[in-house]
Amino acid sequence: MNAAASPAQAPLSEDEIDALQQQLDAVPAPLEPLDVSALDGYLCGVLLQPTPVAASAWLPGVTDVDGRALPPGFDATRLQALVLRRHAEIERAIARRDWFDPWIFQLDDSASPSDSVLPWVAGFAAAQDRYPALMASVDPALVEPLALLYLHFDRDDLEDADALIEVIDTLEPPEDLAEAVQDLVRALMLIADVTRPRRDTAPLRRPAARRAPPGRGRRPR
């Protein structure tokens, strides 16, 4: 039997996710912090880079999309501790090729799967803007999993991405949010097979779609 996870390794609870969102909301203007869904995608985009990225380099991108420094006197200790816990949780899951629950929230009953997934994918894309090595790779094994992620963007947002668009045209959009989330995690693990290869893999279990608590589920600011 596996030992119980220590508090520092335990997945963030719903209350802790809410607390993290509140702390992100408290980051003062003109900084533009990610919301928790975009943050989650951003962490995955950082973790799947071909070369590891130091926390000191990627943390500023959490509290400002342009990586600007926090103002003097703003205490980000708790915020960063929660972010680092989530980063470590995702890192363990990727290393084991284990399922993890992305922070994706159904916006409302009328929202399409892409509407709900897009904030997360926007966070992933923000990491690629800061660290372009993954998108610059010419490994053909990356095209399909990246297409599974980027199909949620409007075509007009996909500049200089002819190879991705060609594959996106062959893909069926997900029928519901659970399928979209499953495709997303599968895509991440396929990317990891290229950028973080290992000999054995672990099966993924099917996800349960999350519904956004009040006040959450908006697009990144």
Molecular structure report:
This protein has ten helices and two strands; from the N terminus they run αααααβαααααβ. By secondary structure, the protein is an all-alpha fold. It has one domain: Four Helix Bundle (Hemerythrin (Met), subunit A) (Up-down Bundle), CATH 1.20.120.740.
Brief summary:
This protein is mainly alpha-helical and 221 residues long.
Number of helices: 10
Rounded mean pLDDT is 86
CATH class: Mainly Alpha
Give the strand tally. Answer: 2
> What's the number of domains?
1
The percent range for helix content is: 40-55%
Strand content: under 5%
Chart the SSEs and their pairings:
Elements: H1 14-25, H2 36-47, H3 55-58, H4 60-63, H5 77-96, E1 105-106, H6 113-130, H7 133-136, H8 143-150, H9 162-168, H10 177-195, E2 210-211
Parallel strand pairs: 1-2
Keywords:
about 220 residues, mainly alpha, Four Helix Bundle (Hemerythrin (Met), subunit A), two-stranded parallel sheet, 10 helices, 2 strands, globular
